[in-house]
Design goal:
The longest helix is centred in the middle third of the chain and has 13 residues. The protein contains seven helices and eight strands. Helices cover 29% and strands 21% of the residues. The protein is of the alpha/beta class. An eight-stranded parallel β-barrel has the order 1-2-3-4-5-6-7-8, surrounded by four helices.
Length: 214
């Protein structure tokens, strides 16, 4: 059974606090993803780690960095993030990605490598001895509420064949209509934004998605 992970994408400190307070009230949601954007790698500039107060230590917090070539991760560590997700496409070379992975580990956090929809899955094999977690985007990153790209299902299956023991995440476009298929493909963690946080009753939305992945 896949784990449903609520995702927060907000532009201001006030918006982030309101949404995080909402998500932390959802029973059974013990892992939360926060999206960060620099206005360069993605068009939108999102809340920064330095704007975030210390996070609830009873949750597992993921930082999804939609940021051009990040190398300094200290603010995320200070805030309380345990997992740092970096984009393969954000760096100039594979070596630069590996340097970022090393830095994340040195800060005592878990690294994860993410790829966009148009990047070949096989590039992730380069990092299989360095990281356990990989994220496959189901949409072009940077905006909640986009339609799910169907080829993502086959991309998950391909990654599972290439790296059988990987922890695979899928992020973007997840709805009740497709969550079961995403889970069945071999996904471990399913990131969900608007289909939870923008719903009239986030707890009911979360529970419905959980049931569909069983």
């Amino acid at each position: 059974m896949a784990t449903i992970v609520p995702a927060i994408l907000e532009e201001t400190k006030e918006q982030f606090k309101a949404t995080s307070d909402l998500v932390m009230k959802i029973p059974g949601a013990d892992r939360i993803q926060v999206d960060f954007g620099d206005g360069e790698f993605i068009p939108t500039k999102l809340v920064s780690a330095s704007d975030i107060d210390t996070l609830n230590p009873y949750m597992h917090w993921e930082a999804h960095l939609m940021v051009r070539a990040p190398i300094d991760f200290l603010d995320y560590k200070i805030s309380g993030f345990e997992t740092i997700i970096i984009h393969y496409e954000a760096y100039k070379s594979t070596d630069d990605v590996k340097k970022a992975i090393t830095e994340i580990k040195q800060q005592g956090m878990e690294p994860s490598v993410c790829i966009n929809p148009n990047t070949e899955v096989k590039v992730l094999e380069e990092f299989k001895d360095l990281v356990n977690n990989f994220l496959i985007m189901g949409v072009v990153p940077g905006k909640q509420g986009q339609a799910f790209i169907e080829k993502t299902i086959e991309r998950v299956k391909e990654l599972r064949r290439l790296i059988p023991n990987a922890v695979i995440e899928v992020d973007g476009g997840i709805k009740p209509e497709n969550v079961a298929e995403v889970a069945k493909a071999g996904t471990d963690l399913i990131e969900v934004g608007s289909a939870i946080v923008k719903q009239p009753n986030p707890t009911d939305a979360f529970e419905k998605l959980k049931v569909l992945t069983k």
